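The instructor's notes for this session suggest beginning with a concrete chain rather than abstract definitions. Hand out the sequence below and ask the class to guess, before any prediction is shown, which regions might be ordered.
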Amino acid sequence: MEYDNIIRQVGEFGKYQKVFMVIVAISSIFNAMTTFALNFVFGEHAHRCKISALDDHYTSPGTVFLNTTNGIQEYNVTECQIQTNGTTTKCNDWIYDSSLFEATIISKFDVVCDEKLYRAHFLMGHYVGLLIGSILSGLLSDLWGRKPTMLVGITMLLFSMGLRPFMPYFALVSILEFFNGAGSMISYICPFIILTEMVGPKQRILANFAVYITFCVGNYILLLLAYFLRDWSVLYFAITIFVAAYMIVMFFISESPRWLLSRGRKKEALVILKKMAIFNGKILNISVDDVVVKDIHRTSFLDFVKTLIKSKKLIGRLLVICLNWFAIAMTYYGISMNVAKFSGDVFVNFAASSSAEFFGIIFCWLVTDRVGRKGLFCTAMILGGVTCICTIFTSLYADKSMLWLTTTLAMVGKFFCTITFFVIYIFTAELFPTVLRASVIGVASMTGRFGSISSAYVGELGDIIQSRFGVALPLMILGGFGLMAGLLSLTLPDTTNTCLPESIDDAKEIQVSKKNGNGTAVNECELETLTEKI
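After discussion, reveal the predicted structure:
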């Protein structure tokens, strides 16, 4: 008896899986909190040159009158220069506006003026961490197991967040940001993988939804914390407490039985499956000898790569998937990590961005199985790309009173990007076989991290090209990549209600879901089971 048949006997989505889903999905909350905290601790922080020790009250850049020993002295100050008596000099000390934030990483280490480009380098460190996390999440979860790898990710988050406020140098904070990025990616990918493998085919969308919706909950929790905790070190300590509390919960989750079987560890898998059956009110009367594990489950990574290269269909499919991951990640992080640069209040912008993501996920939950993976994905990619490109018109031809329209278009683009991010995980998982599913997701996600890294510098183009066109250029680039990737994704097969492919041949032969007389998609796994019974 193979795993899919066993999971039907113990219950495809019983009490055990429901409790398990809640516990595991919580980890993605910390991905959101630790990543997007940068909008508040490393975003724009209003500042100007500090004239002297007597200059202890922030005012906007412009003319400043200071009472000195020589009387009242007039200074013309900007964010980076001081002009007095016709002489202009660069400043090396700054005073920051404490009305919005009491302290940030920007004010702590004076990452302004000539050092401003270090912001992009800092973000790149985070995105490189996401890249390494993508690789490790796939390779280690296939090698060590889903649970141990997930524990590694949470541990990285705990130490990278807790130690950062004590670091005396910006370089050390940046290094810890790298580990934060790696840990946050591992703590998102591993829960998705293990939940996908713990439920039946009909519940895969629900598993993906659970991980993503808790990610959104993390955004809202972060928003509340950041609103009341305006000091970056205090905010980081608060997030660290949340992560530390979850470490205790980690001891109550089990390993993926599907992964254990793929490694030939039948006894361990059977213990978990029988426990699942008891919780679900089912009876599983099988022995270790009754469990069938296909030889393909032990295929090495090298053999898989060789087979993949020989198949034009699979290698082409992988390239299209990777391009889409690149475009989605670049757009998603390009918008999400730069909400402080849009017009309006940073908290309102972050709330709007988080809400666009939240409603995008709800939309996916309601329509993905009805519309199909491919139809929804391609439509969202194309519309999202077009929406971002349209910001050139509002930036070039609308006056300042209409700047909110550019922000609105960006949030609509974020809505469509959320849809594609939701579907791409499950889409990728269903296109490749079980034995290396985690590795393939890791490789595809790794490609997306290059998109994330690119977004760190794309987001700075508006500051480099200080014009109305410069404001629109980042969103135009994001939209252009999204549109191109969306058109290419039309070549992919639809995987709605198909069985997870177990072998290379299964992956090659994925067909569009069949439909019954009412136009409702029929589960291919169920069709195979019915055929076997007949």
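Then share the key points. The longest strand covers residues 62-68. Residues 512-523, 526-534 have pLDDT under 50 and may be disordered.
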